[in-house]
Amino acid sequence: MATFSHRPTMHEAPTRHFDIAIIGGGFAGVYCAQQVLKKLRGIKSMRVGIIASENHMVFQPMLPEVVGGSLSPQHVVNPIRMICEEADVLKASVTSLDLENRIMTLDGGRFTPNVTVTFDHLMLSPGAGVDLSRIPGMSEHAYLMRTVGDAMKLRAAIISRMEEANLITKHQQRKEMLSFVVVGGGYSGVETAGQIQDLIAGVLRYYDNIRADEPSVTLVHSGERLLSMLGPGLGDYTRRCLEKMGVNLIFNKRVRAVTARTVQLNDGSTIISNLVVCTVGNAPHPILQALGAAGAVPLERGKVVVDPTGQVKGVEKVWAAGDCAAFPKADGGFCPETAQFAMRQGAIIGTNIVACIQGKPLKPFKFTGLGELATIGHRKAVAMVFGLRFSGLLAWFMWRSIYLMKLPGMDRKLRVMAEWTFEMFFPRDINLLTPSFSSPLGEMHLEKGDSLFRSGEPAQSLYAVKKGCVEITDANGHLVKAAVAGEHFGERALLGDGIWRFDATAKEPSELVAIDGGTFKTLVKSIGSLDSLFRATAQQYHLPEEIQQTVAAMSETTRLSIAADVMTKSVTSLQAGQTVQDAIAEFQAHPHSTYPVTEDGKVIGLLRRSIAYDWLKNHGLTSQDLLKDLPLTKPFCVRSDMPVPELVQTLMRTGVSKAIVVDPDYRLLGIVTVFDLLKGGQESVPPVAPVILPELAISPR
């Protein structure tokens, strides 16, 4: 059995049985269901089920028009229940699939128990998956073009950038905000780039503060020619049309990394952009990966290998079509991943499933393709139909006519036709009507040298470092903190006035998790321990003037001293070879909260009394365990010749109240606390210049 995830439930799983189960609500799945229902009409005993992650079928060739504002989102989707009325439609995800025992488990959502489905025939058409992980930062920052939700989100993002840029007074900032990059020179990439350019050109006159030369659309393609499947002639025509519209084209280059503000190419060049659209990155669907790994179905390059009839090779009563299948073409090779092939594959499989049930011969797939069409934007398109090539306005009219006929449902045909007609006479809709589904958590990728935020900018998030290193520096360029994996920063601004007082820059390629500021404040208010924790760690981020003020409040004698002059030399320490019982005796004789632990005279850690007592509770009051076996705290050590102003900065920037003073060999010399620095009295003196914090001061062995 191939299993993808499991969510335990307290309820008994409901069960259903289908004579024919179809996984996927795209072209292949829906047309298979329609053909089966047509062939079995009047046979009440046969049950057909469609399992899809959405309750609608998306007419994907028209998604770029949603981005460009030529079509409303609801007009490019069809409810599966309405176009397959006699089928049982289940909106759910398949979590496990056992082909041998003909059973699958479905997850319908947070509030429903898992559903068990048994079946006789199974049609696999879940489509392709998405894998952007090969390009650092792409999955965190890029917009996709696969669903109607993706198209709506992208269109809203473009209009939102226009609205924000209209508020900015600096020309360069507007150019950076209005730089849009589309990755991929196939059908989706070309059509999306053209529609974005058309949208910008159509609405620019409504934004008084945005100049015509500020918005830009850049298409990055790894090949030498756009739409290579249409031949060099139409590919070159597409290039000329896009360039004339104002789209910047980059050929023979790949995206190496994406950050919040840049797109970095494999030749070392960088494009400043705040919005990236990715139309590449197809990957095997998780269902197929699990089945292939279990040996249940044969895979070739992540696709299910099928016979010309659509039946999976070597597996009875299991069929596959669409983007997930290596479907043989009648004239050789495999079928391309286009709608015209998917719908016909689904139809022939529907016919063959019924034939199999009735004991009739199966029919092979004979369709070789009618042609290819792609719209470029600005009422231009390219087409190759029955071997003939068309371009320009005629191809654009053909594109609209052909896809209008293929659009399922008469009501959708009429709505789209009316909307296209209105679009010819009226301006594009620029309403920003997108509901907010923002997640309180977001992941981001930074390349070396990338700026996360600058002093004076509004603080929006708390950041946690998953990988890499981010350096926090003050106005003087001095290092405040180098946040590495497992550490966080940003709490001071969020707990204060909401303004960054420092600069944050990636020291190396880094992965971060951003926690929304609103969510952070809610948690801090709700959980007292978190409030105490973050207020304590916020003390590490002291401004230069705050450090100068503390130093200036000290007596002149103290300011001119070094650590050895102000430290407490008589320190109660423990030996690593002593037992916990020995330590308890020292606690009683010399009560302190923390004790340095040494081995051969060198400091190896700190033992807190609370840790020792917890150890005794868990290991017994007669514990003879050695102190070096306990979870010692990492000591904070400073050198004995450190000047007091530098020592103050070190203590304030690290958020500790005491430091162990050691010699170059890390032998214990004494201990210094904030109270040792202040006990010499206070006086009013001119501020002391800030000092650079050396690496030695914060690097205990």
From TrEMBL:
Coiled coil: none annotated. The keyword Calcium does not apply. SMART domains: CBS (SM00116), cNMP (SM00100). GO terms for molecular function: NADH dehydrogenase activity. Residues 441-524 form the Cyclic nucleotide-binding domain. The keyword Secreted does not apply. InterPro entries: CBS_dom, CBS_dom_sf, cNMP-bd_dom, cNMP-bd_dom_sf, FAD/NAD-bd_sf, FAD/NAD-binding_dom, NDH-2, NDH2-like_C. Keywords: CBS domain, FAD, Flavoprotein, NAD, Oxidoreductase. It holds the Pfam family CBS. Residues 567-623, 631-688 form the CBS domain. Belongs to the NADH dehydrogenase family. This is NADH dehydrogenase. It comes from Prosthecobacter fusiformis. The lineage of its organism: Bacteria, Pseudomonadati, Verrucomicrobiota, Verrucomicrobiia, Verrucomicrobiales.
